[in-house]
Write a structure and sequence with these properties.
The chain is an alpha/beta fold and about 325 residues long. Helices cover about 45% and strands about 20% of the residues. The protein has two domains: about 35 residues; about 220 residues, Vaccinia Virus protein VP39 (Rossmann fold, 3-Layer(aba) Sandwich), CATH 3.40.50.150. It has 13 helices and twelve strands. Helix 9 links the parallel strand 3 and strand 4.
Length: about 325
C-alpha cells in the first residue's frame, strides 16, 4: 500500500505535489500508514511477538523497527492514590496478566555468553550504526551532565553492560556499581581489568541503598530506575547515600509529560516484548508524579535534554533548599 501511494504521488504535477494542501495531505496519509496497531488481547500480543522473533532473526535494527508497529490498550481502573498499596497492587496485577506470572526481581536476570560479550557487549553486539552511535551519545551526555570533579565518588545502580561505569572509572572516578545479575558484575570486572580501571562491582538489588555505609558525590540510574519494584523505597534511601552537595541522575528513564496514569506499566511494543517475553519490569512515570515523588523525599529536579539521541533525557535531582517535606507515602 505504501509503495503504491508513493508511486501515485510521484505522478502528480510538481506544482500540485508541492502545494500546501498536498503536503498536509501527504503528512496525514503517512501518519495513518505508520500508525501502530492497537492490541487488546494476549493472543494478539503473542502473534506480534512471533513477528518480532522473525524480525530479530534478520537484524537488531529490524527487531527495533518491529517494536514501533504495535502497542496495547487495556481496560484497567486504577485507584486514585498513586502512593497507595492498592495502586501498586493494581500495577503488579496487570504485570502478572501480561507476563503470565508474578513479578520477582529474578526475572531481570539475563543469560549471555560472558566470553563473547566481554569483547563486544551491547551496543556493539547489535552491529547497528544508529544504535551504537545513539548509545555513545547518550553515555557522553551523562558524563557531560555529571561534570564531576576529579576523583569523585559515584554509585551506579543497574549498570548492565558497564559502558558508563568504565568510562567514569577510566576518568579516575571511584565507581561502585551494583547489579542484580552476577554475570553482569563479572562482565564489568572483566572489562575493567582489561583497561586497568578500578571498579567496585557487586551483586545486589535496589534495596541495597539502605545497607551501604559510604556516601557518594553522584548516584546514577541509567535506564535502570524503571525496573525498580518499589521506586518509592529507592527514593526514600537516597538521602543516606548522597554526600552534601551531591546529585542524583535519572538518565534515559521513561518520564513523560503525558501518561495515562501517574505511574505504571508502559504498553508500547518494546515494553510489551520485554514484559511478556523476558519478564522484565517496564515502568513509566508521568513527569508531574515523578517530580512530586522526589519532593516528598526532599529532592528537587530539573531536566537536561540532548535531542540527538533517544537516550538523551536526564533529570538531575538535588536536595531541596527549603528543607524536607513529608517523608511518608500517604
Amino acid at each position: 500500500m505504501e509503495r503504491g501511494a508513493r508511486r501515485a504521488w510521484s505522478l502528480l504535477p510538481e506544482p500540485v505535489a508541492s502545494s500546501r494542501v498536498a503536503v498536509r495531505a501527504r503528512r496525514s496519509a503517512s501518519a495513518r500508514l505508520h500508525r501502530p496497531r492497537v492490541l487488546r488481547t494476549l493472543a494478539e500480543l503473542d502473534e506480534m511477538l512471533e513477528r518480532l522473533d522473525r524480525a530479530g532473526a534478520v537484524s537488531d535494527d529490524e527487531l527495533r523497527l518491529g517494536f514501533t508497529t504495535f502497542r496495547m490498550e487495556v481496560d484497567v481502573q486504577m485507584p486514585l492514590d498513586p502512593y497507595s498499596p492498592e495502586y501498586r497492587q493494581a500495577v503488579f496485577d496487570l504485570y502478572e496478566w501480561l507476563h503470565g506470572g508474578p513479578y520477582t526481581p529474578k526475572n531481570e536476570l539475563i543469560p549471555f555468553d560472558l566470553e563473547r560479550l566481554s569483547d563486544s557487549p551491547f551496543p556493539y553486539s547489535t552491529h547497528s550504526g544508529p544504535t551504537v552511535g545513539n548509545h555513545l551519545i547518550g553515555v557522553g551526555h551523562v558524563i557531560r551532565t555529571l561534570d564531576l570533579a576529579p576523583n569523585s565518588r559515584v554509585l551506579e545502580f543497574g549498570p548492565g553492560w558497564g559502558n558508563t561505569t568504565l568510562a567514569l572509572a577510566q576518568m579516575g572516578h571511584q565507581v561502585t556499581a551494583i547489579d542484580i545479575g552476577p554475570n553482569f558484575v563479572d562482565l564489568i570486572r572483566t572489562r575493567a581489568r582489561r583497561v586497568n580501571a578500578s571498579v567496585e562491582a557487586m551483586v545486589g538489588d535496589f534495596s541495597m541503598i539502605h545497607d551501604l555505609e559510604d556516601v557518594y558525590d553522584a548516584v546514577l540510574f541509567f535506564e535502570s530506575f524503571h525496573h525498580s519494584a518499589d521506586h518509592l523505597d529507592v527514593l526514600a534511601g537516597l538521602e543516606r547515600v548522597v554526600a552534601p552537595g551531591g546529585r542524583v541522575l535519572f538518565a534515559a528513564e521513561p518520564i513523560y509529560k503525558s501518561m495515562a496514569f501517574p505511574w505504571g506499566l508502559r504498553l508500547d511494543g518494546e515494553s510489551l516484548w520485554a514484559i511478556r517475553r523476558n519478564g522484565w519490569l517496564e515502568l513509566g512515570f508521568r513527569k508531574s508524579y515523578f517530580l512530586e515523588a522526589l519532593q516528598r523525599f526532599g529532592w528537587q529536579a530539573h531536566r537536561v535534554a540532548c535531542a540527538e539521541t533517544k537516550w538523551g533525557e536526564i533529570f538531575v535531582a538535588r536536595r531541596a533548599e527549603q528543607g524536607k517535606s513529608s517523608r511518608g507515602r500517604g
